[in-house]
Automatic annotation (TrEMBL):
Record-linked CDD domains: ASKHA_NBD_YND1-like
Protein name: Apyrase
Pfam family, one: GDA1_CD39
Region (Disordered): 632-713
UniProt source species: Capronia coronata CBS 617.96
Keyword Protein biosynthesis recorded: no
Entry keyword Translocase: no
Residues the entry annotates as binding ATP: 183-187
Length: 713
């Protein structure tokens, strides 16, 4: 028996519009899983538990204006929950993902970046989970990606990947379609029949998985999303339409057929009393409880009249290949489940969807007086989880769901004729038994769990991740992931860890796995790439000071490597003669000291450099001794200066040693050295005398390298 310590873990935070839920998954390492002959030809087996999930409200998108609070005020309990269930020694190897959906998609780009950056920084600071790349592990995912993950999760739990022969729907089709509706968006994902797949090949997504024995699986799936078609966003659009219909100047009380009779609510759906309505400064809604009118008013929200640029289309002018309900059987989750089962199945689970039964129950509930509904809630007539706010919202949601399913997507209206001779309860039971026998072969079935596991797109994400950890059976096998429907590895191919093709080098030679937390998936980088990634892709709070410090080091290194001649030219260009005062009382700057030190130490090589440049110009020791002291040009007024301190041949002095020529005694007086300078001149004069140069001697043969000071040092 394998110990839990030998298992792999993964953590996914589903950051939705209404809240964030953490999911924990566990599976066997491939080296262990492939020892079991019964599972060698199946995808990695993931397990989770109800106690491993936790949800907090509201969603991360509410922190758009205060991103620094998203960690302590939102993520903290979720991370503590994850650390409670993941063994401590497994945490460093446990990947963690926070994947945000429609709520975050509605935020401005700058607010999205601020929230995600704070999320990643907080996770890294508070936990030791495996999070190598913020852009990969913490991101806003497109609706199409969310839909594809959901499609993987549904088919994984139903067993269509591992046992296709047991799910044959005809025409060599064995997978199920997937429908998801959240608060802000809705998704559809399905594998079209062969004819439609060939006709719309460019619209499909290529998906690759890998079984425990390393064998590849390929699927071509159509996925699309409708932002604004989630239950909450649809209601917001619905209220805006109501306001436009009645006109805000004409009435304060807006009749709402999608609210139970007599209920009073704010425009956001919050229930208020009649007394509060009387003093309200804003318009409020009054429920009329008219189900048929509610259906009629929610229908325009489908935007069926929007232009369709690529036939065929479903809603909002969005292209979708033709649906063949003989082979495409859909599983609906999230709002599709909650809206059909929380109230209208009265806590009876696993009911097959029946339009006739469902519509009758919605009508019966929503046309009641609000006082009667509150009485039923008090006595738990619709289960312990149904409160007043749920009861107020469910009538609109039910009408929107019915329109979306049957008028929008085109799901056949199962149950309109089949249950006409049965009571609502018996008709549902008959369809339930039929659905069990057929194995979810009705055109649509709302589900919450399959095999005691919640159907969540987060499961699909981790199935991909675990599948990618399996080494390929053959060298050169294509990687696990998804992308455009083209042969080979498309340029937009997404790896389960979130990277792209260029992040995983040498894959074609079969080295390593697609997504290994212990492997370097980014491959070797050049020094330039490493510097670029460190400076511009890092989330470190001190990135800018580090960048400035790096530039400073680069400048100093370049200065010392550019050669003595260039250093001299740079020095002269940065610190021209006119900019220096003869007074030594001013404290030199760091850069001027640096350049001055260079000039002092560089003078010894003047002879050899001049010969190389063709100048062949030599100076006597006096020239060198006076190098750092101002000198006048040949026509300067040198009155009052010691002739011994002047250049012997002013016409031969180098230009680089010439200071600005004063034109008056006033200027000369301003340039006269102070007391400190005079002491410096005395030292220089004494230094020259200690050289004991004979005028007859060829002083040009001597250099400062042979000076007593140099020899002494």
């Amino acid at each position: 028996m394998v110990k839990k310590a030998d298992k792999r873990y993964g953590v996914v935070l589903d950051a939705g519009s209404s809240g964030t839920r953490v999911y924990i998954y566990r599976w066997l390492p491939n080296s262990v899983a492939r020892l079991d002959e019964t599972t060698r030809h199946a995808l990695p087996e993931l397990e989770t538990k109800d106690t491993w999930t936790k949800k907090v409200h509201p969603g991360v998108s509410t922190f758009g204006t205060s991103p620094e609070a998203v960690g302590p005020k939102h993520l903290k309990p979720l991370l503590q929950h994850a650390l409670k269930h993941v063994p401590k020694h497994a945490v460093p190897e446990t990947p963690i993902f926070l994947l945000a959906t429609a709520g975050m998609r509605l935020l401005p780009d700058e607010q999205q970046r601020d929230v995600l950056r704070n999320v990643c920084s907080y996770i890294r600071a508070e936990t030791n989970f495996y999070l190598p790349d913020c852009d990969v592990h913490v991101q806003v995912i497109p609706g199409e990606t969310e839909g594809l993950y959901g499609w993987i999760a549904a088919n994984y739990l139903l067993g269509s990947f591992n046992s296709p022969e047991e799910h044959d729907h005809g025409n060599d089709h064995h997978t199920y379609g997937f429908l998801d509706m959240g608060g802000a968006s809705a998704q559809i994902a399905f594998a079209p029949n062969a004819t439609e797949a060939e006709k719309h090949a460019n619209d499909l997504t290529l998906l690759r998985l890998r079984t425990v024995d390393g064998a590849p699986q390929e699927y071509r799936v159509f996925v699309t999303t409708w932002l604004g078609f989630g239950a909450n966003e649809a209601r917001r659009r619905y209220v805006e339409d109501l306001k436009a219909t009645y006109g805000l100047d004409a009435v304060v009380e807006i009749p709402d057929p999608c609210l139970p009779k007599g209920v009073i609510a704010k425009q956001d759906g919050t229930i208020i009393s009649s007394a509060e309505a009387g003093i309200a400064s804003d318009h409020y809604l009054l429920g009329t409880g008219n189900f048929e009118e509610c259906l009629r008013r929610t229908f325009p929200l489908l935007e069926k009249d929007a232009p369709c640029l690529d036939e065929p289309c479903l809603v909002q002018g969005v292209h979708v290949p033709a649906l063949d309900f003989d082979v495409n059987h859909f599983i609906g989750i999230s709002e599709y489940w909650h809206t059909t089962h929380e109230i209208f199945e009265m806590a009876h689970k696993d009911k097959a969807y029946d339009l006739n039964t469902y519509q009758n129950r919605v009508r019966e509930f929503c046309e009641q007086e609000w006082s009667a509904i509150k009485h039923g809630i008090k006595h738990k007539s619709w289960g312990k989880d149904v409160d007043e706010q749920t009861a107020v919202e469910v009538c609109f949601k039910a009408s929107w769901l019915i329109n979306m399913l049957h008028e929008g997507i085109g799901i056949p209206r199962v149950g309109l004729e089949d249950t006409s001779s049965s009571s609502a309860r018996n008709g549902t039971k008959e369809l339930l038994e039929s659905a069990k026998d057929k194995g979810f072969l009705d055109p649509f079935q709302a589900v919450d769990k399959i095999k005691s596991t919640e159907v969540s797109w987060t499961l699909g994400k981790m199935v991909l991740y675990a599948s990618a950890e399996v080494p390929p059976a053959r060298e050169g096998d294509l990687p696990v992931g998804f992308g455009s429907n083209v042969p080979g590895i498309p340029k937009d191919f997404q790896y389960p860890s979130g990277g792209r093709l260029q992040d995983i080098p040498d894959y074609h030679v079969g080295t390593g796995t697609d997504s290994n937390p212990n492997a370097n998936t980014e491959g070797p980088q050049s020094i330039t790439d490493q510097i670029h990634d460190t400076l511009f892709k890092s989330d470190a709070p001190h990135r800018l000071p580090g960048f400035i410090f790096f530039l400073l080091i680069l400048i100093i290194a370049t200065f010392y490597l550019c050669g003595r001649d260039r250093r001299s030219r740079i020095y002269n260009s940065l610190f021209p003669s006119s900019s220096f005062s003869a007074s030594s009382s001013a404290k030199p700057s760091f850069f001027s000291s640096l350049f001055s030190r260079h000039r002092r130490h560089g003078a010894a090589g003047q002879y050899s450099r001049d010969v190389e440049e063709g100048a062949a110009r030599l100076y006597d020791p006096g020239d060198f001794e006076l190098e750092n002291v101002f000198s006048a040009s040949s026509d300067d007024d040198t009155t009052g200066l010691d002739p011994e301190l002047a250049f012997r041949n002013p016409t031969s002095r180098p230009k680089s040693l010439t200071r600005t020529s004063p034109k008056s005694k006033r200027n000369l007086g301003r340039m006269t050295p102070d007391a400190i300078d005079r002491r410096g001149l005395v030292v220089r004069t004494e230094s020259r005398e200690r050289l004991d140069l004979d005028p007859a001697t060829n002083a040009r043969s001597k250099s400062r390298n042979g000076s007593p000071t140099r020899l002494k040092s």
